[in-house]
Amino acid sequence: MINIGILDKQAVTSFVFYPQVGKYVVYTESGKLLDIDNTEIIEISYRNQKVFLKTLDKDYGHFNKIRIIGVSHQNAFKLKTNKPVGKIIQYEDNLFIKAHPFHGYLQLINNINIDNYVAGVVEAEVGKSPPEEYFKLQAIICRTYALKNINKHQTEGFSLCDKVHCQAYHGKPKSEQIKQSALLTSNTVIVDSDINLITATFYSNCGGQSANSEEVWHQELYYLRSVKDSFCLSENNAVWQKKIAKNEWANYLITNGYSKEILKDSCDYEYFQIGRERFFEKQNVQIPFVKVRTDWKLKSAQFDVKTEGNFVVLQGKGFGHGVGLCQEGAMRMAKMGYTYAEILHFYYEDVHMVDLESLDFFKAEF
Questions:
Q1: Could you give the C-alpha distances from 43 to 8, 40, 54, 79, in angstroms and in order?
Q2: Backbone conformation region of residue 241, classed left if phi is above 0, alpha if psi is from -120 to 50, else beta
Q3: Residue 365 has pLDDT above 60, yes or no
Q4: Given this model, what pLDDT does residue 266 score?
């Protein structure tokens, strides 16, 4: 089971909960409060650092924390926020509620079986259209990432959040195929040569060449090496373009160390990358491409700079940081008949897939 902080950015102060599958028991700090099934609904709200609970028939008062635990073989529930008004979202397994320790609203934590969570992440991250083989691969990657970063929000009382900051998670998946892919790869994770969980990074499109890890995050990892990737070149996010006023671009370069004397004519504004380069560099002045990407909110750090009248045009490739698995390239490989193992080893160098339950054994042998 893993604890996922949900809907935190929405600052929820009131919501309704109703079981969809199975039965639930509501517990407070004083013990068991009541049983509910899919014929009932409860409303939970926040006031004065307390959590209030009521049903259609009874007001149960306030508590410090509430745990709603599923007691059937399979359990799922629907949740709809009242303040702020939100849409109905379906989740699986359990829900923990308490007053947020730092803010004036409820903290909601989905306590969920990791395979159920992984299925939700896969659908949120990639949608429902890729082939099954890709779903299996993404499930293994998402599971590895979750366990590698399981303490990311430990100080806040949960493991991971539901935003892209951790992994996008929008609750129970609608696709049964995604659900089955998560179950078929249950317990499978990716480890390095020291039998440690890898940093399983992924992104949308590498534009034909992925990046070495140290080019983006300054940490060199042997399994995150640059890969020539022709599979993604015809996909949706392979190319992009951004037009910037030439004077704005000049001011940016000057702010980052260029002198006005360098920028005398149009060719001084231009730059053409050979493969993936680390720095935008002219006359011994360097600006990291990842910094340029962040400063200008670009889709990637892989782009050429051309002039066009009073503008510079950034002609880019790919979408994302470029380290690890290229999702659109991997999807294309899956459609072409590659297995998830073959795709995995194309993007991550010299890694291994192992069963979680075997990790201790492998480490002992190692």
A1: 18, 10, 5, 10
A2: beta
A3: no
A4: 63
